[in-house]
Amino acid sequence: MIAANHLYNVAKPDGLTITSIIPAIYFNQLAGRKEVKFDYAKFNWVGSVDRSDNLIYIRSDTPFKTIYDVRRAAQPPKCTATGTGTVGHYMPKLLNETSGPSLTSF
Length: 106
Prior knowledge:
By secondary structure, the protein is mainly α. The chain is built from four helices and two strands. The chain has helices at about 1-10, 25-30, 65-70, 85-100, and strands spanning about 80, 105. Helix 4 (about 85-100) links the parallel strand 1 and strand 2. It is elongated.
């Protein structure tokens, strides 16, 4: 976050300063964290060493077989994550924002 804020607000836009920030940092902007002092969409990318495939797993013995089952549920399933500030924490939040309140993160 500090590097992204510095690159966006302090570093001269002369192409001589580059940084490597985690790709999931854009979730901080989507979540409206007050520490974000950048517009992620305005960064230019040279390349990435990261390849992230994000999955949400659910047990097969639940009544949820598709994402549509989750969206129509009277009682939404609960999600867990390895910690706040991680992609695993923000993915359920992103799903809630884009498809209606269907997942509860704890």
